[in-house]
Amino acid sequence: MQIQWYPGHMAKARRMLIDNLKLIDAVVEIVDARAPVATRNPDFDALFTGKKRIVLLNKSDLADPETTKKFLRLYAEMGFRALAMAATSSQKKGAAIALLQEAVQEEVARMEQKGVKKTLRFMVVGIPNVGKSTFINRIAGSNRAQVGDKPGVTKGKQWVKITPYLELMDTPGLLWPKLSDPLLARHLAYIGSIKDDIMDVEELAAQLLQELMGLCPDALLARYKKLEREMEPAALLEGVCRSRGFLLPGGLLDMERGARIVLDEFRGGKIARLTLDRPDYERQDTDVPAKS
Ligand SMILES: Nc1nc2c(ncn2[C@@H]2O[C@H](COP(=O)(O)OP(=O)(O)OP(=O)(O)O)[C@@H](O)[C@H]2O)c(=O)[nH]1
Ligand SMILES: [Mg+2]
Q: How far, in Å, CA of 124 to CA of 131, rounded?
């Protein structure tokens, strides 16, 4: 499957991030806990060299808790401050604020010695649809940034003042130019970080069903009754249509409707709570542009 996935506005967004780096104290990178490898933009290592970085594994309510713990250990080994959370709940709000403050505490102390109370500014970054704006709204305690269940909702930068001394910058989702790892590309598409209208949804849903049959066969068989373990991807999608009675006039199966239902139900966490990526996966798409 060929995916056209680096639209022109992304290059503009990348430029904007670089231009704003001088204003900020640290970068908060949001990844999706269901696909923490696929949703980490490999371009960020070059973009944010020299900046303090915090990684938030968001949507952890939809991910497998044990795998989330493994990813947290991995980030700790890599030297990142990291936290698993669900921005749609207030449970980890305090822990997230504490983590942000901790990341810049030395600078705050240094300024305090000079008698200055520093305003902390964080840039919130990540690929599309991982919950950057939802996170900012959670920290702000009100709906200040626009949110939506599709990629590309935030179009430009937006500063959100949380307190007189804490500001968060919302940014548009940023992908990297070359998508040369087909497995990671599929994972991004399954979770909804790439626009569905640039993909073949039937092929995508069929592949997702095959992957889910490997990861959580019991949950899948329980949800769609007409599936069998050894089915090929296309047969799995047909099985979903039969399970739900998705027929077109004339008796053909409505594969597109079946595909959209599978993607919707997976994205909504209705099939199973699971993580697609493995912590030891070695990505093949680290080929990213130079910093400017
Ligand atoms: N289940 C669950 N859904 C979440 C969580 N965080 C965000 N969402 C949902 O994910 C969708 C995308 O959220 P946004 O905050 O708009 O994501 P974004 O990263 O700002 O997206 P762009 O601006 O398009 O790049 C929305 O439907 C949110 O309700 C979470 O922790 N758990
Ligand atoms: Mg947004």
A: 10
The DSSP code for 118 is P
* Beta strands in 103-175, from DSSP E residues, in sequence order: 120-125, 158-163, 166-170
Is 190 in the same domain as 118?
Answer: no
pLDDT, tens digit, for every residue of 41-93? 999 999 999 999 999 999 999 999 999 999 999 999 999 999 999 999 999 99
Q: Which ligand is nearest to the CA of 137?
A: 1
Residue indicated by tokens 């910058």: 169
Would 214 be classed as within a structural domain? yes
Token digits of residue 180? 């040369």
CB distance 131 to ligand 1 below 6 Å: yes
What whole-number distance in Å separates Cα of residue 191 and Cα of residue 59?
Answer: 11
Give 165's contacts (C-beta < 8 A, 6+ positions apart).
Answer: 117, 118, 119, 120
Q: Which protein residue's CA is at the shortest distance from atom 27 of ligand 1?
A: 149
CA distance 161 to 121: 9
Domain that holds residue 194: 182-267
Q: Are 276 and 189 in contact (CB under 8 A)?
A: no
pTM of whole model > 0.90? yes
pLDDT at residue 207 above 50? yes
pLDDT for 265 beyond 70 = yes
Q: Which one-letter DSSP state was computed for residue 247?
A: B
Is a pLDDT exceeding 80 seen at residue 289? no
Backbone phi, then psi, for 280, in 5-degree steps?
-90, 10
Q: How far is the CA of 265 from the centre of ligand 2 (A)?
A: 22
Residues 149 and 60 in one domain: yes
Asked if the structure places residue 159 within a domain, the reply is yes
Strands 26-32 and 120-125: parallel
3-state class (DSSP) for residue 108: helix
When pLDDT is cut at 50, 70 and 90, the band that residue 292 belongs to is very low
- Judge whether 176 and 41 are in contact, CB under 8 Å: yes
